[in-house]
Design a protein that fits this description.
Its cofactor is Fe(2+). Residues 28-315 form the TauD/TfdA-like domain. The protein has helices at residues 29-47, 60-70, 138-144, 147-156, 172-176, 181-190, 237-247, 266-278; strands at 11-12, 20-22, 49-53, 86-88, 91-93, 103-106, 114-125, 129-130, 135-137, 158-163, 194-198, 202-209, 212-214, 221-223, 254-258, 280-281, 290-294, 298-302, 305-306, 310-320. By secondary structure, it is α+β, with helices and mostly antiparallel strands. The strands form 5 sheets. The chain has an 8-stranded mixed sheet with strand order 1-2-3-17-7-20-5-4, covered by helices on one side. Strands 6-18-9-16 form a 4-stranded antiparallel sheet. The protein has a 4-stranded antiparallel sheet with strand order 11-12-10-15. Helix 1 (29-47) crosses helix 2 (60-70). The longest helix has 19 residues, at 29-47.
Length: 333
């Protein structure tokens, strides 16, 4: 199907691709971002994402300045599931994930009580092959999943279990910003996270969250979670087998289940990932690209890639779960 360019002018809408806005480099990307911030936010509100090509971003300081002109303020990440490089002032690398493996679709920090409403990405170095930050409309995904499955998740929610260790995934300091036990316990209580210190096996946490929410601005029902991404069956088989052998099936770095604790079968995870793939939009990165993503309306992931890749990310526009009509009520104390 041919691409179209409906209002706002210059936005290319092509099947299977994110909305693309092509611009001419100005030599002053932060000023351009400030001038066009409102228009870019309008594109994201209309389509769920916007890829800006031609801006010519070249270094981290410039990216930070652009991000700061597109968002009210940049969030500090808490409860990270994987390490990131910290650049400065709320600007991070993308999560460390094997280059040869697909990063499944997810909504950033959807297991928190507060999460970003807007994701900002910028590519400084594009690999030779692959690497797209892929996108999927969460309402389309919700409608495409079997009703009996989504209804169960609406009733029960989903449960994330994490076991922290010194080898795999984010460390306590990376996830909580501290290794102090009392501070971690206070954070968990304040954020409705059950916790247990396991002798010789680190910290184990459990948090139950809604799988379906309503967008706070539009009221759209959205499939908003990380059920498939953080489930054991999304891992590469050899990785899962290794982790089970080393840590045990009940002490994986992360795993998800139905809200009542029942395991989620491999068939369910494959189904969710297949629906995501059937509804994926992708465009390989080019150096200098900028992308804005509505984190509630639009899931994102990452294709495998070859060659160097440097993509910076920031999280902005904090949203409270309580403002999204959650189907599962949580009590923080």
């Amino acid at each position: 199907m041919p691409c179209s360019s409906p209002p706002p002018p210059g936005v290319e809408l092509c099947p299977g691709k994110p909305p693309i806005l092509r611009v001419e480099p100005t030599g002053d990307a932060p000023s351009w971002a400030a001038e066009h911030s409102e228009a870019l936010r309008a594109v994201v509100a209309e389509h769920g994402a916007a890829l800006v090509r031609g801006l010519g971003l070249q270094h981290a300081a410039e990216v930070r300045a652009v991000f700061e002109r597109l968002a009210t303020w940049l969030m500090v990440e808490k409860e990270a599931f994987a390490p990131r490089r910290v650049y400065s002032g709320g600007v991070y690398s993308t999560s460390k994930w094997p280059a040869n493996q697909q990063m499944c679709m997810h909504h950033e920090l959807s297991y928190r009580l507060e999460f970003p409403g807007l994701m900002l990405f910028a590519c400084l170095d594009a690999p030779t092959r692959g690497s797209a930050t892929v996108l999927a409309d969460s309402q389309v995904v919700l409608d495409a999943l079997p009703a009996e499955l989504t209804e169960r998740f609406e009733r029960e929610g989903w449960l994330l279990t994490r076991t922290y260790n010194d080898e795999i995934g984010a460390s306590l300091a990376e996830a909580f910003g501290t290794e102090n036990r009392r501070a971690i316990e206070n954070y968990c209580r304040a954020n409705a996270i059950e916790f247990e210190w396991r002798p010789g096996r680190g910290l184990r946490t459990r948090q139950r969250r809604s799988a379906v929410v309503r967008h706070p601005d539009t009221g759209r029902r959205c499939w908003f979670n990380q059920i498939a991404f953080l489930n054991e069956w999304t891992m590469a088989p050899e990785v899962r087998e290794y982790l089970v052998e080393v840590y045990g099936a009940d002490a994986l770095p992360f795993n998800t289940s139905f809200g009542n604790g029942d395991p989620i079968g491999e068939d369910v995870v494959q189904l969710i990932n297949r629906v995501y793939e059937d509804n994926t939009a992708r465009e390989p990165w080019q150096a200098g690209d900028l992308m804005l993503v509505d984190n509630i309306r639009t899931a994102h992931g990452r294709d495998p890639f070859e060659g160097p890749r440097e993509v910076l990310v920031a999280m902005a526009d904090t949203v409270s779960l309580s403002d999204c009509s959650p189907t599962i009520q949580v009590i923080a104390g």
